Amino acid sequence: MASVPQLQRQFIEYTTSLHNEGYLDDQFTQLQKLQDESNPDFVVEVVSLYFEDSEKLLNNLATALQQKSVDYKQVDSHVHQFKGSSSSIGAQRVASVCVHFRNFCEEKNLEGCLRCLQQVKQEYILVRNKLEALFRRMMQLEQQILQAGGSIPMME
Amino acid sequence: MGLKMQSHHHHMVAVSLNSDQQLGTKRKYTSYVPRTHQGKYLALWIIAFGFAAVHVYRCIDAGHQQRIQEGLVSMCDQRARMLQDQFSVCVNHVHALAVLVSTFHYYKNPSVIDQETFAEYTARTAFERPLLSGVAYAQRVLNSQREDFESQHGGTIRTMANKEPSPHRDEYAPVIFAQETVSYLNLVDMMSGEEDRENILRARSTGKAVLTSPFKLLGSHHLGVVLTIPVYKSKLPPNASVRDRIEATVGYLGGAFDVESLVENLLGQLAGNQEIIVKVYDVTNTSDPLIMYGRQAQYGDLTRVRVSTLDFGDPFRKHQMTCRYLHKAPISWTAITTAFLGYVIVFLAGYMFYTGAIHIVQVEDDFHTMQQLKVRAEAADVTKSQFLATVSHEIRTPMNGILGMLALLLDTDLSSTQRDYAQTAQACGRALITLINEVLDRAKIEAGKLELEAVPFDLRSVLDDVLSLFSEKSRNKGIELAVFVSDKVPQIVMGDPGRFRQVITNLVGNSVKFTEQGHIFVQVHLAEHSIAVHDATSDSCLSGRSNGCQTNTLSGREAADDRNNWDRFKHLIADEEFPFQVLTSDGISQNVNLMVSAEDTGIGIPLHAQKLVFMPFMQADSSTSRHYGGTGIGLSISKCLVELMGGHISFISRPQIGSTFSFTASFKRCEQNMVTDPKRSLYDELPTAFKGLKATIVDTKPIRAAVTRYHLKRLGVFVEVVNSIRTVASVLGSGQPDMILVEKDVWLSGDDLSNIRASVFGHVLKSPKMILLATNITGDEFDKAKAAGFSDTLIMKPLRASMVAACLQQVFGTGKKVEQGRVMANGSVYLRGLLCGKKILVVDDNRVNRRVAAGALKKFGAEVECADCGKAALDLLQIPHGFDACFMDIQMPEMDGFEATRRIREMEEQQTSSSVDGSCDTGTTTEWHLPILAMTADVIHATFEECQKSGMDGYVSKPFQEENLYQAVAKFFESKPATNS
């Protein structure tokens, strides 16, 4: 069994690795900070809300872009939503693709929009996998740490 | 990160394009110069004025020609008239001869005229008839009378042609009298010549002088005409018939005009004879004019001719004179030169316009290009600042991670070496963050994005804070660090405390960095007062410089700005003995202009570098930065900040002596009732327990004493200053002091304190507390001081009111404990305090955002309710409601944040006005004004004004960050914290 500091370090390293790879930014750390005893599942709750919303939005976007005459205003508002929620949970790569997406929307560039939709989907799936893995890993680590009698380290 | 950067790049390009377009639409000035085809315009100009020149030439030339023509006319007419006159004179004379003949030959019987008489008479009167070669009288002889006649005259009648005896005819006209010149005509029948015959017939039928057509005269080869005048035997009535006349005719008087020599003579008398050719014609038969004078050939100037009619008195014959110039008229040089010179001038003017136009067009083009370049340069500058801002921000995020990790690392078990490494890394990281913040500040200032706050603050406590930052360093170096704020400066002013602190920190930081011994002295005065005193004392100080002014500074070392010594300071604080209430409380001016100076006795700034001091990234030289560190950006930021605060910064520096930086800044006066209880809510309160105590300061240096007094006065302590411990006793008249503060150097310089203490205060029950003031003190000295009687306490400089208070508390043992639990404003605990129990509405259409915002606010103890669109928010905010604040997303479908806010404000206004109308129900006539904060992801574009326009109170950038949230929320809740919690 690993020692508590070691586990704590692993815990931090894992979260940091997500940062370094650019999937998540500071905002996610902020989210983690918001989680406390009174609100123990805050991060999971928000992130699963995000997953639900995102899948809905991605579907909406796909349908909207398949229409014969594409309503770019609507597409734009979907992308705006998507960008907003992504930056709220700190999924910065998704958010930055959304910025491009909106530019294409403004230009009414269907090809660009479709390409961005693919990118956004990819990024989203990546970040979802990462987050899910993170949650699993964290649960594990937390349990281990708690078992070992340590406390969950907070990110600065 | 990469993607983000790219997106920013796109953004920036868009910005610059936009500015280009704006320029294009803005630049609509009218140009009065053709931009193309200047060459064509020039050609057109030249051609047009070419025609004009020709026209001018023609006009002038026409006048010239007319004058020539007029000359010709006058000459011709003159000649014609003279010729005519002379001719008629001759004719008249011949007439007279005719009368003579008729009178003396026919009326006298017998005739008294014979050939001799006639010849004699005519010869003697020939001068009267210069034009006539000769005159002769022919008698009319009918055929029947021929024989008688011939016999009477002794000869036969001969013909003119061959002088033979005349053949038989009806009538003859033989010459009976002749002038000698024509004596060969004697008895020649004048009617035998065709022309003469016709002439004779015509003459006798008309009774007038008649002329023949020109012919070659007998005896000369000149052209001539023959004049014939009839002689009647009786006087005829004027209306006699032709028949009567013929009947009455008795003879004919004739003469030959030698026209050629006549005209020749005449012309010879006149001027200008050589210039013109004169011809005289007989034009009785108009189709065949007969020349009388002049050569037949046409020569001379054929273009100009003048014809004058001649009247020789014979109505049957018509004569005329034609005149021509011999030479063609000369070309009019005046006309040509006038026209040509005019044309040249106009041509040159045209050329000037042409080159001018080309030049103007070129200059305009250059101007245009330069303007574009300027716009591009400005855009690039903005882009640079934005880039800096962005990059700095981007660097800060990972740096926070690094610092966080280091903090965690330092919490773990580390060997001392590892700890040292980690601490060094952390220190470096902090330094880097500071640098980045500075760069960010500068970029923000350059991009015009930095806005100053206007919140009430206590600048004395700000200065104390700054002092506390550097107290450790200054103590280590043994520098005297002090601050003094004039009493005239109000306690609370409105302004940006953070930025003010930043400037002061920067100046003091520099001073501390570059000063090894001596002092650093920060003073704050009212700018007006400071200037007034400066004016008043500048003279006296100039004279006082020689006699050791420099010793009168804070530490006794010479300072750069010698005016900053006690002589001046005395004046500045002079009024404070009797507080000068008018300036501070009349409220006429809403502005408080402060003059802040920071004086040090450091290494100074080399003269060559003094110009560069306020340039970013400039230090005196590279060795400076190697030796002292730092980037040199601080002063340039300070300058910008000072300018933003409506002041300006300057300095006086003397190498190896020190520098004095001073700046002015303008703050707003703060109304006391505007902030309910500013001291309580905003600032550390100074304890009031020492009010009314008396203190005596023993100090030889007046400025230092003034600083000490300043801090004590803030605590409400009455202060007296004396020069030495000996004199303490002399001021006892006003009562015994509660404490005596002694400077270390005064104490060391001699007086034994304990004796004096014993002797002076020995009889008093409660002896005053003895306090030693020192910048630094060694262990030995400390022991000695204790032994000498400073058992009470030692106050280490720099002095700060709160620190002095703490020490005094210790000395006097006042039981009152200062509430140390007060949380400093920048912690989340503080935020919790602000938000705890507040009811907050979060409006956002995005579920995730809403949840996060709510989570964040809940974490700080707020009670959060959510609305997913503007309408729902309006429903929830129907008055009365219990919300304390509202966070509003800006971009929402249907009704965006601005619109929703406007409606909420409308609702509130209605409510307020109606509650004023019927102010009965609760008695609370408070205005409804819900603080509404915009939430936006786009901080750059969402300017504060835009939010304010729609009635919002501020904005928070999304996603929420603690400090951000704190700054925004603090503004509202800070000022009225006591009302709800």
Write the SSE topology.
The complex is a heterodimer of chains A (156) and B (981).
Chain A: H1 4-20, H2 26-34, H3 42-66, H4 72-89, H5 92-107, H6 110-148
Helix pairs in contact in A: 1-6, 3-4, 3-6, 4-5, 5-6
Chain B: H1 2-26, H2 38-107, H3 115-124, E1 132-139, E2 141-142, H4 146-153, E3 171-172, E4 175-178, H5 194-206, E5 210-211, E6 215-216, E7 223-232, H6 242-248, E8 249-257, H7 259-269, E9 276-282, E10 290-293, E11 305-310, E12 319-325, H8 333-411, H9 416-446, E13 455-458, H10 459-477, E14 480-485, E15 492-495, H11 497-514, E16 519-526, H12 527-544, H13 566-574, H14 581-585, E17 591-600, H15 622-628, H16 634-644, E18 649-654, E19 658-669, H17 678-682, E20 694-698, H18 702-714, E21 718-722, E22 739-743, H19 744-748, H20 753-761, E23 769-774, H21 779-788, E24 793-796, H22 801-812, H23 828-835, E25 839-843, H24 847-859, E26 863-867, H25 870-876, E27 885-889, H26 897-917, E28 932-936, H27 944-949, E29 954-957, H28 962-973
Parallel strand pairs in B: 14-16, 20-21, 20-22, 22-23, 23-24, 25-26, 25-27, 27-28, 28-29
Antiparallel strand pairs in B: 1-4, 1-8, 2-3, 5-7, 6-7, 7-8, 9-10, 9-12, 11-12, 13-15, 15-19, 16-17, 17-19, 18-19
Helix pairs in contact in B: 1-8, 2-8, 8-9, 9-16, 10-11, 11-16, 12-13, 23-28, 25-26
| Poorly predicted segments of chain A | none
* CATH homologous superfamily annotation of the largest domain in chain B: CHASE domain
Helix content of chain A: over 70%
- Taken from the alpha-carbon principal axes, the silhouette of chain B is rod-shaped
- The 3D shape of chain A can be described as elongated
Backbone CA Rg of chain A: 18 Å
CATH architect. name of the largest domain in chain B: 2-Layer Sandwich
Oligomer: heterodimer
Rg over CA atoms of chain B: 67 Å
User: For this structure, what is the CATH class of the largest domain in chain B?
Assistant: Alpha Beta
Membrane topology (chain B): Multi-pass membrane protein
Keywords (chain B): Hydrolase, Kinase, Membrane, Phosphoprotein, Transferase, Transmembrane, Transmembrane helix
InterPro entries (chain B): 2C_system_His_kinase, CHASE_dom, CHASE_sf, CheY-like_superfamily, HATPase_C_sf, HATPase_dom, His_kinase_dom, HisK_dim/P_dom
Main location (chain B): endoplasmic reticulum
